[in-house]
Structure formats: C-alpha cells, structure tokens
Amino acid sequence: MSQTYLVRGAAPLGGAATDLFLADGLIAATGKDAQRAAGADTEVIDAEGLIALPGLVDLHTHLREPGREDAETVASGTRAAAAGGFTCVHAMANTDPVADTAGVVEQVYHLGRDAGWVEVRPVGAVTVGLGGTQLAELGAMADSAAGVRVFSDDGKCVSDPLLMRRALEYVKAFDGVIAQHAQEPRLTDGAVMHEGRMSADLGLTGWPSVAEEAIIARDVLLAEHVGSRVHICHLSTAGSVDIVRWAKARGIAVTAEVTPHHLLLTDDLLADYDPAYKVNPPLRTAEDVAAVRSGLADGTIDIVATDHAPHTLEDKDCEFSAAAFGMTGLETAVSVVVEAMITPEEHGFGWADIARVMSSEPARIGRVRRQGQGLTAGAAAHLTLVDAHAHTVVDPRRHASASSNTPYVGRTLPAAVHATFYAGRPTVLEGQLQDERSTP
Amino acid sequence: MRHLLSAGDLSRTEAIDILDTAETMSATQQRQIKKLPTLRGMTVVNLFLEDSTRTRISFEAAAKRLSADVINFSAKGSSVSKGESLKDTAQTLQAMGADAVVIRHAASGAPHRLAHTGWIDAPVLNAGDGAHQHPTQALLDAYTMRHHLRAERSRGADLSGVRVVIVGDVLHSRVARSNVDLLHILGAHVLLVAPPTLLPVGVQAWPCEVTYDLDAAIASHRPDAVMMLRVQRERMSNKGGGFFPSPMEYARRYGLDATRMAALPDHAIIMHPGPMNRGLEISAAAADSPRSTIREQVANGVAVRMAVLYLLLAGRSQSRPDLPLEA
C-alpha cells in the first residue's frame, strides 16, 4: 500500500471543517471515518483554517513543448500548474510541430505522465498545421492513447464558416468539442490592443470587440443548426457575454471561458507600452471587466481558464509591436479569481463557485472522467488546499514556470495555494513544490 | 524636461519655453556663421529605424549647428536589419557615449520603451513613432502658426483662440495626434476633417472637434490655419485596408484645391508636414501659393530641434550652458 495521508481540519469549499483520508489515489474516507481509517504510518497534514477544493482543472494551457522549450516544457509548465493548485491541464495545440496528429498528442501525453505533476490532456488542432483549410485527423487523436476530446486552433480562429461547421459536426462522433478562438482575422489585421479610446491615443492598431462577437454569434448559430456543442475560448467583451447569454437561453449547447486577466486588468494599463500587458484577446475596458465578472457569477460564463502563455524574456523585453502576445497565469490564477470575484462582495461568489468554475465544469467540458469529482469518499484524490487569508506580492523569480511574463509583478494578491494533491500524492506542501515526491 | 516623447507631456509653460528658445535659435540662423558652440563635445545619435530623410537631416543640421557630434544610425545596412534588438542597438550606442538619442521608429511606443525601461540613461527625443507621436513636428507647426498669427508679439505668446483645421488621414497620423495635443495645450481650437474610415475609433475623446465635410468646415470654422496631412495612395487598396475608393475621389472630397483655397479667410495659412502628394491631398496651386508655409515649416524645424536639443542636454549638465543670444 502506498503512502496514505490524513488531511485534518480543512474546510471543503469553505464549509464546515472536516478530515479527508487519502489512500491508493482516492479520497478513501471523510470526517470521522477518515480518522478511523488512518494508520500509524499515515502522514498527517494539518489543514486547520485552509479551504479544500477539488484539484483545479485548466482547459487552456500553453506548455510550449514541442518546439519552444526555451519558454516552457511540459515538465516546467506542469510543475507551475501544481504550484497553482492544478491537477489537470489541457495542453494547447499550437506547438511546433502542431499537435495535429495522434503522434504529437501522444508525445505530449506521455511527457505529462513522465513529469507526474498533473494530468496532461492534450488539445488537438482542428485543422492541419492550424492552417484553417483542412481538418486534421480528429478521430485519430480521439482514439489515441491521449484520448483527445477538446480540439482547438487556439492562437488562430477557425474563420472559414464551412470548415467550422464540419468540425462541429464531425467531433460529435466521439463526444468531442471545438474550442473556438473567436477572432475575425480580417477585422484584426495587425491588431495589438483593444480598439477604443486608448488605442486612439497610443497609435496602436485596434482589435475591435466586434471581431470576437461576430465569430461567437456565428458559431453559436452553427452549433444550434448542426446540434453540436461549442466552447468559446477566453471570452473578453461585454457583447460576447450578451451573445452567450442569449444562446444559452435559446438552449444552444455553448460553454464559455474567461481568463483571470480579463477578470482583473484593463486596457489603460497599456499607457506605458509595457509588453507584459500584451495579450490576445487584448485587455478590454472596465465595462467589459464588469460584464465578464457578472457573466461568470450568473453562470453565463462556465469556467475560468488560464490561457497560461509563457514567453522568453527576449520575446517580451522589446518594443510593444515586436513583443509576443500572452502572459503566464497558472501560478496566479486562484489569487486573481479571488481578487476579482470573491473580494468584491457584490458578485455573491464563494469557494463553491471557484470549485465549479475551476474544477468540475472544466472537467465536464473536457470530458475528463477522473477530475473535478469533488471531495467525497470514492472520488479521485485530487485536491487543493488554499490559505484564504494569505497575501502574496507577486514575484516571477519565485514562480516555477520557465518564463517570467506575469502582468502582476509587484502586485499584492489575496489567497495562496498551500498544498496540492494529485492522485493521492502531494505535489505541493506548505507552498513548496515536492520535487522528490513527484515521480510516480 | 528629461525626454521629449509626446507633445501631450508638455505643460503650457514648457511648450512656450521651447517656442521662445526656438525664436532665439532662429535669430542666430540669420547670421553668416550659423554654428553655435553650445553643445560642443556632446554626441547626439540619430537612431532612425524607419525610412526618413527629411526629419533625419533636420535633426542632423540642428545638432551640428549647436556644435554637437552627430552619429547617424539607420536601419538599412545596420545590425537591426540582421535581427539585433532595439535594446541591444540602444545599449551599443550608449556604450559609444551618446549624450542624447533621437529615435524614429515604425513601432508606436518604441521611444517610450527606450526612455523608461532602464536600457539606457540618455535623454530620448522622439522623432516619430508609428501612428503615435511626432512632437517636434507639432512644435514646429505651432512655431510657424505663432510666427504668422502673432507676428512681433509672438515671444511668450500661446495660440489661444487660433482656429486650426487638420485634414486627412488622422488614423495613421502621428502628426495629427501631436498637433491635437500641443494645439490644445496652447489654447487653439482644432477641427479634424477626414473620411470616417480614416478617423480612429475613440477620437471622440480627443480635445478637438471632428467632421467629415471639408467645405462645411472651411465655411463654418473660418480657420486661421489649414493643415493638410499626407495620404498614402496604397491605403485605398483592399490589401492596404480599403480606406477609400480611389485617389480621385479622395482628392475631390478632401483635397485642398483652388476652389477651397479661395474659400479660406484671407489671412489663413496653408500647412503640410511633407512630403506632399501633389494632386491628392493638396493641389500645386495651394502648395505653391504665397499663403503656403510649407518651406518655412522646414526651416523652422531646424530652429525648433535646436531648441529641444539645447533644453534637453542643458538640463543634464550642472550649469546650463549659455546661449550666445546677442551676437
């Protein structure tokens, strides 16, 4: 029998404190049963005052391997994920080579297993080479050892409406979902920031909200027409929230994600042309931030996904237009969501909501069977302990990601991941990554 | 003044100080020997990473007439075209002893990055960045307006009450942005005229008025100055963004032709930052008319850039070097 753990005094979803006994990769018992089940060699984890959440599941992570191992590897990115309280990440397909064949997704899957920090679920490309012209072998990726269920050309939009229709239809055969990066390419040629008052002042090419909203409107109607589900990546505008709300009311099988940064940051941060704030879709206005927060609170937006996008220093330490799009997010996600959704009390958002939008719903959308199951006896022992009262000054030198492009440098954020258990093993204890224990 | 990055960063007092200093510089340029010893021993680098001849030679002339050494660094044939980063280029120049960096760059915000990243510590002078700012152009335009409209009462004066119409491709124009900012600071009233496609979303927040009709603008605004912006012909193509249907249609609706020139108030001056597209945004008759200040703007550019270099570099040294004002 492997090492067992007794997590004492944690508050599941912020509720009444209880004990959890972890054995053989499962939450074997809870409450008084947990204490009884613990043996002499059970390691006791003092979790008094900590919030227990089911292990977090990220539907949108860029691990960069293969191709850009200088920015992140599967090992470094999943280590960062564990530090951020995650037990499962979906590795986006825009690697080099692109994850558009069974071979590449299986490689990423196996790299994830070898690293052992979290469950790595590769995302398959929708089109060959993200080229937007020919469907990739979606079935082969679905049937591979990686068992792909989420397909996305993320970084690029599947802009051809007929190709999008075919993709939506085709993945029904294996219960897959298309995750659309909603960006009308012609409306965003050369665009580097939100189009509005700030872009007019800064003389930077604008990325209009309508370029996102037009694609979302088209795709929810396509999904309705062919009876498929569709997932919207990193929704960022007030108009997009309205469209998804309308589609859901109509019964369309649409799900949507928002990133932590779109819940907190606005385009006025670009006044100094700092590429740390260059991201796609771009940071929007305060009105958009208010709308995506409301959308997340009322369930219009289903999940938070990090869009963790590591980049090397040289790709960010340059002029704005030359810089890469993207920011890291795994290690700050919980804190930013708390700052945006729980700290301002008007959203009525609690820890159970965090568990819903960062664990159970993303697992459901991605069809990840052994994740997001909750904290009940018999569930897989993926869990995260959060110190809700901690405050941390963000310092990328203390991050596990191989890249340092966080937009929160120097910012004090609430809540900290105290411990993460993946399949019954601690990957993080007392805020420290457990390197020697991580190998399965 | 540590750097000059944006016309909007200037206070009214600073702007007037630059214009007054430029008047002093201009007076010295009427002498037979134009060179002043003021910046002797200092090195000014012209870092021009976007094609520009006119602005570069204007800065070069300004620096040389203040006796500074000038190093010209342009993208073509330099290591920048071989993939060296802006950071490395700037630090190389700093290591060679640049006392000030004049930068022209296609990327909006590049001068701002150079000034605020800690890559270098020399003063940075923005000579045009993308569609963002070109502050010395706005200063030389304000100088030209003040000279004509305030005449002998120009020293110490602002432009309050002056009515300016700026016509053309505002969307892509750093000249328009800089002028709107500076003219507002100096108290002028600005009206932008452009086809709706060539106005940025968000222009409503700028301190100016906006209209689409040039004839109505001339009739109702009664401008003291009309500034025509350069329009790039390639912008009409589908690939270039399809901003207007044809050069002829643009010229008909927004060009300064003889009829529109005749409708201007008698005292109004005609301005253009150059280089001109004759027959597109401005007719030859307008460009060459006595009321055109286009060549004068070029001459004033040297005086304004001398003033800015002097004020930036003088502010750096312990004792502000004296200007040999009265020769």
Largest interface: A-B, 23 and 27 residues
Report the mean per-residue pLDDT of chain A as an integer.
97
- Ends distance of chain B: 27 Å
The strand line-up of the biggest sheet of chain B is 7-6-5-8-9
Helical fraction of chain A equals 25-40%
Shape of chain A: globular
Order of helices and strands of chain B: HEHEHEHEHEHEEHEHHEHH
Overall radius of gyration of chain B: 20 Å
Largest sheet of chain B: 5 strands, parallel
Q: Helix count of chain A, per DSSP?
A: 13
Number of strands of chain A: 19
> Based on helices, strands and strand pairing, what is the structural class of chain B?
alpha/beta
User: Which regions of chain A contain 5 or more consecutive residues with pLDDT less than 50?
Assistant: none
Q: Which descriptor suits the 3D outline of chain B?
A: globular
Oligomer description: heterodimer
Largest sheet of chain A: 9 strands, mixed
What is the percentage of strand-forming residues of chain A?
Answer: 15-25%
Tell me what portion of residues of chain B adopts beta-strand conformation. 5-15%
Helicity range of chain B:
25-40%
Which class do the helix and strand fractions of chain A yield?
Answer: alpha/beta
